[in-house]
């Protein structure tokens, strides 16, 4: 097979010692970026760009890609151990990962998330290897009207991911959308809801909100009962790894997550974060025991953690075959390419095959390396739980705030991280689960932009917009889902009433 | 943030110089800054430290440059330092609050269509647009950006109605063009170069005085050649706050002149798709003044200013 030959050539490029070393360094840094809460992939790569000037271009790119996909491996670590997401893409992992940790299954959760990352990362890579150019073309069929319909249906289906109260979840999602309108509107170029404060023009960065609501918020929650010793059962070595039953429950979500993540990764937007939420929602719906979700269902870790990794592989497709970066992290990767004199795009595969296939082969190798690095680390990380909270949490706070500062080099952002931290703490106290807020924040702008641009494209006719074939299909799926929800709600209500009558 | 210590001019620079990039990591300005960083130590005697301060279409970063006076804070500039104060009140009037050190490169706007579209040249497209007013949608990287200005200039000059679709940056706009959701795109050459080379995108006109030097674009005629008065380009440069000691400014100007005219730097700039175009402090200052006059007229005549003002209410 032709592709197999090319891939073999790629492997021969990627196992040259210098390239292998760059790959190892890349994934090690990536793991660190992922584990440390608040340290953002984009700022980490930006910080390291100057150090790559003297490097061979292939080696440099292999390293940067390594940081990128490596960072999604470690993101779940702190989610599971201390309920603080290491990356925005691991916010949803807190929901079930942390309860698992509380039950003494932290090791299993970490192992499942590492293995899921590996499996899904590889699924994504296979897609990238075999189908990059045709997939990139296919994704272009999605224009603004399609993004609008996806965002709308996504908001409807995903806002009720957690908790018991639909009203509270919807409220959080709406607040998220409202927050997303603050700042310089990217389309009209005007400042909205900034009260003349220049710094607010930037709007709220996803990482800033995630670090505040979940990071600082959880630290505050933990500090309010710092005196209490963590009552985590001591973990025996044997218990570090998943049981057969946990395995069986995880394997399908891993593959499902892998496919979902891959598809989401082809479209513009923060794909890793969006795909993790979609995967969580999907698992909850597919599960035979949805009541366990939120209380340590392993599927809620396996699915999202897999999805965000294959999303990463998929985001490389528009970057490599069209030269179009669809998210912040691929934009900085593009810079890395350009600085080394390489322009990704349709001709990259034919003009620089050794680089293209070398890079892809290195990603296969990097995924294996990440698995090898991460599995033994689980034991070390679980030991961290023995650290008293009043020592651990201030350390986490320092790391989180440093990371938050580094995103825009802005003190102003730090104030907001702390503000959202307090908000997150209070919300938890009164029984609001803040993760739908993140969904609103991420999907709100897509919704608004898609609608504005879509309406211009469709000459201002909303009917023309919603009857485009793909848009209509997506919207019908959404409508069916809402109807289904109503029907189940009515039957439940009806049953309760009948029971009460009797 | 104000720092009143005037640098000791004889020893300057004796510590690393901060170069503020008022846009996010990975954009065109950021790339140019990083190419400067690559050679700074050799020519300036001190490294450059790049700090990205994105937001407010560049204004957050420039406010910081304009408010500093220690000589160790410089900023990357672009055509937005002139455009932004035209669109509304900014904290400083950048063309007068900043002093140019150098201009590095220019980026002319190009007008492209997908290769599957029927229009072989600009003339055919304009004829179609005259018959079907409002049917042609052109994309650009954001309201009030040079791509938008160029598109509106064409519409005015050809007296046709073109509907504008704003996107968030050139990557999303290019994707929408490739997917056939918009028919025309006004963007910088770098972001479509690979697609022009590949034949998926056809270039109809260049919004500059002369044809581009890059062989990929060399055959594309300018708007002027085709009878339309559309000249609009963005550029990248470096500026310092006003009122630095003359010696410091001279040292900076000499140092950056040497970096920019280094053959390797030029090669890299051109590889990124920019037109290399060095201007010294004096020439840059003159350019700022003429551009300011020209653009303030253009944004008024094309109605862009009215649109932005209307939305600001």
UniProtKB/TrEMBL annotation, chain A:
PANTHER family linked to this entry: TRICARBOXYLIC TRANSPORT PROTEIN
Organism the protein comes from: Pelosinus propionicus DSM 13327
* Record field: transmembrane: 12-36, 42-69, 108-132, 138-158, 170-194, 206-226, 259-282, 322-343, 355-382, 388-407, 414-432, 470-490
What's the source species' lineage? Bacteria, Bacillati, Bacillota, Negativicutes, Selenomonadales
| Source superkingdom | Bacteria
Please list the residue ranges annotated as the DUF112 domain. Answer: 20-439
UniProt cross-references to Pfam families, sorted A to Z: TctA
Which keywords annotate this record? Membrane, Transmembrane, Transmembrane helix
Q: Is Transmembrane helix one of the keywords?
A: yes
Reply yes or no: does the keyword rRNA-binding apply: no
What name is this protein filed under? Answer: Putative tricarboxylic transport membrane protein
TrEMBL record, chain B:
InterPro entries, sorted: BUG, Bug_dom1
Q: Which UniProt keywords apply?
A: Receptor
Q: Pfam family example for this protein?
A: TctC
The UniProt similarity line reads: Belongs to the UPF0065 (bug) family.
Name of the featured protein: Tripartite-type tricarboxylate transporter, receptor component TctC
Q: Which organism is it from?
A: Pelosinus propionicus DSM 13327
Q: What is the lineage of its organism?
A: Bacteria, Bacillati, Bacillota, Negativicutes, Selenomonadales
């Amino acid at each position: 097979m032709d592709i197999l030959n090319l891939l073999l050539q790629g492997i021969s490029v990627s196992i040259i010692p210098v390239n292998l070393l760059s790959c190892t360094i890349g994934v090690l840094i990536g793991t660190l970026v992922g584990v440390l809460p608040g340290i953002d992939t984009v700022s980490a790569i930006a910080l390291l760009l100057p150090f790559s000037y003297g490097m061979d271009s292939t080696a440099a790119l292999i390293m940067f890609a390594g940081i990128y996909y490596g960072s999604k491996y470690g993101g779940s670590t702190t989610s599971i151990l201390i309920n603080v997401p290491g990356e925005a893409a691991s916010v949803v992992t807190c929901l079930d990962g942390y309860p698992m940790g509380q039950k003494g299954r932290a090791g299993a959760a970490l192992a499942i998330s590492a293995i899921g990352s590996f499996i899904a990362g590889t699924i994504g890579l296979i897609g990238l290897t075999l189908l990059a150019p045709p997939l990139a073309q296919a994704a272009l069929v999605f224009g603004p009207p399609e993004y609008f319909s996806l965002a709308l249906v996504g908001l409807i289906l995903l806002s009720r991911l957690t908790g018991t109260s639909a009203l509270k979840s919807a409220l959080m999602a709406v607040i998220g959308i409202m927050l997303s309108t603050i700042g310089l509107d990217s389309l009209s170029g005007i400042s909205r809801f900034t009260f003349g404060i220049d710094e607010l023009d930037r709007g709220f960065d996803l990482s800033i909100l995630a670090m505040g609501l979940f990071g600082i918020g959880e630290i505050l929650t933990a500090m309010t009962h710092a005196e209490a010793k963590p009552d985590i059962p001591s973990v025996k070595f044997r218990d570090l790894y998943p049981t057969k039953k946990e395995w069986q429950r995880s394997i399908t979500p891993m593959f499902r997550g892998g496919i979902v993540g891959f598809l989401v990764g082809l479209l513009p937007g923060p794909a890793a974060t969006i795909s993790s939420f979609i995967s969580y929602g999907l698992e909850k719906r597919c599960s035979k025991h949805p009541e366990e979700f939120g209380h340590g269902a392993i599927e809620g870790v396996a699915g999202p953690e897999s999805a965000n990794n294959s999303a990463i592989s998929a985001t490389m497709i528009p970057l490599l075959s069209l030269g179009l970066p669809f998210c912040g992290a691929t934009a900085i990767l593009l810079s890395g390419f350009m600085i080394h004199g390489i322009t990704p795009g349709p001709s990259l595969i034919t003009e620089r095959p050794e680089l293209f296939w070398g890079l892809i082969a290195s990603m296969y190798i990097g995924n294996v390396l990440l698995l090898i690095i991460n599995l033994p680390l689980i034991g070390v990380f679980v030991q961290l739980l023995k650290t008293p909270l009043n020592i651990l949490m201030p350390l986490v706070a320092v790391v989180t705030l440093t990371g938050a500062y580094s995103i825009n080099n802005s003190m102003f952002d730090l104030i907001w991280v702390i503000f959202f931290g307090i908000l997150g703490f209070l919300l938890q106290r009164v029984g609001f689960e803040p993760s739908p807020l993140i969904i609103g924040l991420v999907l709100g702008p897509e919704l608004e932009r898609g609608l504005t641009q879509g309406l211009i494209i469709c000459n201002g006719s909303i009917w023309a917009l919603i009857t485009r074939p793909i848009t209509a299909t997506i919207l019908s799926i959404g409508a069916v889902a809402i109807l289904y929800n109503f029907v189940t709600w009515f039957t439940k209500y009806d049953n309760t009433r009948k029971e009460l009558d009797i | 943030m104000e720092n009143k210590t005037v640098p000791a001019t004889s020893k300057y620079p004796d510590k690393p110089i901060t170069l503020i990039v008022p846009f996010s990591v990975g954009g065109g300005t950021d790339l140019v800054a990083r190419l400067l960083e690559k050679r700074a130590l050799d020519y300036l005697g001190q490294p450059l430290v790049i700090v990205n301060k994105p937001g407010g279409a560049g204004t957050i970063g420039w406010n910081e440059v304009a408010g500093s006076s220690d000589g160790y804070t410089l900023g990357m500039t672009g055509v937005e330092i002139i455009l932004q104060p035209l669109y509304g009140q900014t904290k400083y009037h950048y063309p007068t609050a900043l002093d140019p050190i150098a201009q590095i490169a220019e980026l002319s706007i190009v007008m492209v269509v997908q290769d599957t579209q029927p229009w072989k040249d600009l003339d055919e497209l304009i004829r179609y647009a005259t018959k079907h007013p409002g049917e042609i949608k052109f994309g650009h990287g954001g309201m009030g950006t040079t791509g938008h200005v160029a598109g509106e200039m064409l519409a005015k000059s050809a007296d046709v109605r073109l509907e504008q679709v704003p996107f968030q940056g050139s990557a999303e706009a290019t994707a929408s063009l490739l997917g056939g959701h918009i028919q025309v795109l006004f963007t910088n050459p770098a972001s479509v170069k690979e697609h022009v080379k590949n034949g998926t995108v056809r270039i109809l006109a260049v919004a500059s005085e002369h044809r581009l030097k890059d062989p990929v674009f060399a055959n594309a005629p300018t708007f002027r050649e085709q009878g339309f008065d559309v000249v609009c380009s963005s550029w990248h440069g470096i500026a310092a706050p006003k009122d630095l000691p003359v010696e410091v400014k001279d040292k900076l100007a000499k140092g950056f002149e040497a970096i920019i005219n280094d053959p390797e730097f030029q090669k890299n700039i051109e590889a990124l798709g920019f037109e290399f175009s060095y201007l010294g402090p004096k020439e840059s200052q003159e350019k700022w003044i003429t551009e300011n006059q020209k653009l303030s007229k253009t944004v008024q005549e094309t109605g862009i200013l009215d649109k932005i003002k209307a939305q600001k209410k």
